[in-house]
Specification:
Largest sheet: 7 strands, mixed
Structural class: alpha+beta
Oligomer: single chain
Strand content: 15-25%
Helix content: 25-40%
Number of strands: 29
Radius of gyration: 28 Å
């Protein structure tokens, strides 16, 4: 074997450049003059009014981020809310990542919930610190605290123009009582909330400083690669490790049993080595005989036919308004369509990986996880220990999309470390990631609409079949769950008198999990394409057709405290159309398509502009509008909407996971492709200004992209596509 030389991401980023001398990525950015002036030497005194704030006596403000950073900007957004309520100087802020612990409130970074759940609590954290700093200054000056104000890291006495730097108030602030109900700012007084604030980690990203999971290194650490059964839930019959043990760097080969829990390891044969490469090569050299189990019967082609037949028959009732049978009986026109979408996989750029060290009754983990608290509880359960013995250190995530909220890869590292009594780093290959994941559900849908003589929709039947996420927790489940139906099926937004929604049977044969936007992808696709089909039947404009079905200003209350407002959906539709110059004359072979969706309590509409020339598809422009309530960081929101557009196009163009004989057929980016920069369109994003409670941002931009694209292709070519990906249709 060639000598293995360690080239870390860190050193690579620091040293990379163009040979021509045109680009140097690594750079040193000095502190600003203002920062140098304010920061003094630190003598060890810190003001800590709560778990999220540490103010040093030199003015440095360390804010704790409890949610995971995976390109979602959460470390900047959440901490900027604290800083805003504190009237802190952003240039003096640094961010520390929380370990997994219930004391930090909900830490699960999925479901587009970070800002929605923590906006108000983080405001209170900041306002508490500000109130205590003011009280400390009032005591020092001997004045009434109500006469004082704050601005950019100072407490100010408006009458005398005297001011005290926050760092000089650490002692005094620490000695005053913690207020129970601190006064929050009015929106007009925000300094950072609602602005285009740059990432707190931006400089570090460009210099290779942040630590991702695979950057973790420990003395005595070994590396592990796991050979898993090609068929989900299959087991090891026997294996020959003789060839593997001859490979330089391989230390041992052991068997890892499956843990039959939702997030338990799939099990398999583990190669232990002194480096990742040797572990990978050792895995390749293994000769394993597998017991494939019952899932060997799973083949996508026959399964898709089965669920398509199921949606053509009456299913379980999910929603029933009025009398759809009467509506169809009296209809002037009836439109019927079926839609099919395949399994999808997350495929984040950083594969699953984890480092674990089980020793002396303790367990320390370093991993890129979206849900550190669930990870901790799973480790505690596996080791049969107490929470205080388990520490989950959250690294940066190189993408997640829901995959890294399932900590099976962490449990693998913990189990192997316990067996070999050494720190272990488990790294999945790309093939492992794609072939042993928690997949977004395959689906079939049947839709039937009734139109009266005026082209008004009088009846709506929507029947779905897809394996449920609940099947991962209850394997015998064959039907969907309420939270899946409320992602575009039972809460379909249009004002139609007679509506019936049903669910047909669809058993699961692989692990089913949440992927960015979850079942909104499935139901948002069919609803938006079907509405266009209804509009085409009536020869009405698709935009006006939607607006007509949202004509009444309806407010639907939700137990969560949020509520659906039809006027907001109409507004984003109208704005997206305006921004795209909807209705403009287009060249031959060009078309505009529109779609809208309500998800994670946010309202989104997108217009996609395409051309199809000689059966070659090109997306030119995407115009998206989001109403997400109070916009905490417009920079992050814009980036998330742009990312959602690219994510949605990737799924529409290429996204397809299939099984044959129980084995996933795709394995890497050659057959599960991503959108390339040469195919990326211009993306315009508008954020609706609002003082309402903040809603979701990371996921709501995804569901509208594929249907808007399909509708645009129809308007360009007159041909309607009802299944994805478009590679199957020869368009890409």
């Amino acid at each position: 074997m060639h000598k293995i030389q360690l080239v870390t991401r860190r050193n690579f980023i620091k040293s990379i450049g163009l040979a021509s001398g045109g680009l140097i990525i690594a750079c040193s950015i000095p502190a600003s003059k203002e920062e140098e002036t304010k920061l003094k030497s630190f003598n060890g005194t810190t003001f800590e009014p709560n778990l999220f704030i540490q103010l040093k006596d030199n003015g440095e403000l360390i804010l704790l981020a409890s949610r995971s950073e995976m390109g979602n900007g959460v470390r900047t957004s959440l901490t900027s809310v604290i800083a805003d309520e504190m009237d802190a100087d952003w240039s003096l802020v640094s961010v520390k990542q929380a370990t997994g612990d219930t004391k930090f409130m909900d830490q699960n970074t999925d479901g587009s919930r970070s800002i929605r759940y923590l906006f108000e609590p983080m405001r209170v954290m900041g306002a508490t610190a500000r109130a205590m700093l003011i009280s400390g200054a009032a005591a020092k000056w001997g004045v009434d605290a109500s006469t004082l104000t704050t601005a950019k890291h100072y407490v100010i006495d408006p009458e005398t123009n005297k001011k005290l730097f926050y760092g000089d108030l650490v002692k005094e602030a620490s000695e005053v009582p913690v207020p129970e109900n601190p006064t929050l700012k009015e929106a007009k007084d925000f300094n950072y909330i609602g602005t285009n604030l740059k990432s707190i980690d931006g400089k570090d990203f460009t210099s290779g400083k942040p630590k991702y999971g695979m950057d973790i290194k420990m003395e005595g650490m070994l590396f592990a690669a796991v050979a898993r059964c090609p068929v989900t839930f299959g087991t090891v019959k026997n294996y020959d490790k003789s060839a593997t043990l001859k490979i330089d760097g391989v230390k041992d080969v052991i068997e890892l049993p499956r843990v039959a829990k939702p997030f338990g390891p799939l099990g398999g044969v583990v190669v232990i080595a002194t480096n990742t490469w040797a572990a990978f090569k050792g895995k390749e050299a293994l000769n394993v005989e597998w017991d494939y189990g019952t899932n060997e019967q799973y083949t996508s082609a026959s399964y898709n036919e089965m669920i398509l037949e199921n949606v053509k028959k009456k299913g379980k009732e999910v929603r029933s308004d009025g009398n759809v049978n009467s509506a169809f009986k009296n209809a002037e026109h009836i439109v019927e369509s079926t839609y099919q979408l395949p399994h999808l996989v997350h495929a984040p750029m950083e594969v699953p990986n984890a480092t674990a060290w089980v020793h002396d009754g303790k367990c320390d983990v370093w991993a890129p996880v979206q849900d550190p608290q669930t990870t901790r509880s799973e480790v505690v359960s596996y080791l049969e220990t107490n929470e205080e013995n388990v520490t989950i250190n959250v690294t940066f995530l190189g993408g997640g999309f829901g995959r890294k909220s399932k900590p099976d890869f962490v449990l693998e590292a913990v189990a192997i470390s316990k067996k070999v009594n050494a720190p272990i780093q488990v790294v999945w290959t790309r093939e492992d990631d794609i072939q042993h994941s928690y997949y977004h559900a395959v689906s079939a849908q049947y839709m039937k609409g009734a139109l009266d003589k005026d082209g008004r929709v009088t009846g709506w039947l929507h029947r779905v079949a897809y394996p449920s996420i609940t099947s991962t927790f209850a394997p015998d489940t064959g039907y969907g769950a309420g939270f899946e139906f409320s992602q575009g099926l039972s809460n379909m937004p249009y004002q139609i008198e007679n509506v019936r929604c049903e669910n047909a049977k669809a058993p699961a044969h692989v692990r089913i999990g949440w992927l960015r936007s979850v079942y909104n992808i499935i139901q948002g696709f069919s609803v938006n394409v079907f509405v266009d089909e209804l509009a085409a039947k009536t020869k009405k404009d698709p935009l006006q057709f939607r607006l007509d079905m949202l004509s009444k200003d309806v407010v639907i209350e939700d137990p969560s405290g949020y509520h659906f407002e039809s006027s907001k959906l109409k507004n984003v539709l109208s704005l997206a159309a305006k921004n795209a110059n909807y209705g403009k004359d287009l060249p031959q072979g060009h078309g505009l398509g529109i779609a809208c969706h309500y998800s994670f309590f946010s309202y989104v509409a997108s217009v996609v502009e395409v051309s199809v020339i000689d059966n070659a598809l090109k997306v030119h422009n995407i115009h998206s509008v989001i109403d997400c309530g109070t916009a905490v960081n417009t920079n992050t929101i814009t980036a998330q909407m742009e990312g959602a557009a690219i994510f949605g196009l990737s799924l529409a163009y290429y996204g397809k996971i299939t099984a044959k004989g129980g084995v996933i057929e795709q394995s890497n980016f050659h057959d599960y492709q991503m959108l390339r920069i040469s195919n990326a369109p211009n993306i315009n994003v508008e954020i609706v200004k609002s003082n309402s409670k903040p809603t979701g941002v990371g996921e709501p931009g995804v569901p509208v992209i594929a249907p808007a694209l399909i509708n645009a292709i129809y308007n360009a070519t007159g041909k309607r596509y009802r299944s994805l990906p478009l590679t199957d249709e020869g368009l890409v």
